[in-house]
Write a structure and sequence with these properties.
Oligomer: single chain
Strand order of the largest sheet: 5-4-3-2-1-8-7-6
Number of strands: 8
CATH architecture of the largest domain: Beta Barrel
């Protein structure tokens, strides 16, 4: 079967796109030992933004809107699973407590991850985006 020039080009572009996609997936490395800041503005009256830092051995430091603590993180390929530990409160208001509960719940439901430039995207029912800290 002979393909016309347009069909050959279309097939060739599809193959190149698949190869580039595979390269991107393979090239993406999880940002271990990096401070990751939730893409969100601080709440009024605060400079705090939720943060994560995950080590290669599966330990994590988690700062929510007003609570902080440790977590265990299991990563296999593009799969990720968070298990939050005990959290300590640091000046919680009712609004911040509600946001903490929502964020903790969203982290507990994350199923996979990807990198978009310098942003870790945690994928679950709620997508969470954490930017690599520049300091």
């Amino acid at each position: 079967m002979r393909l016309s020039g347009g069909k050959r080009m279309s097939c060739g572009l599809s193959v190149i796109a698949m190869m580039l996609g595979a390269t991107t997936v393979l090239a993406a490395e999880f940002p271990f030992e990096r401070e990751l800041l939730l893409e969100a503005k601080p709440l009024p009256g605060s400079k705090r933004v939720p943060m994560l830092e995950i080590t290669r051995d599966g330990r994590a430091i988690v700062d929510l809107w007003c609570r902080s603590g440790e977590a265990r993180v299991r990563i296999e390929d593009d799969m990720i699973e968070f298990t939050l530990g005990a959290m300590r409160e640091e000046g919680c208001t009712p609004e911040r407590t509600q946001r903490d509960e929502a964020l903790a719940s969203a982290l507990g439901k994350v199923m996979s991850w990807s990198m978009e430039d310098d942003v870790l995207v945690l994928i679950g029912p709620t997508e969470l985006r954490y930017a690599l800290s520049s300091h």
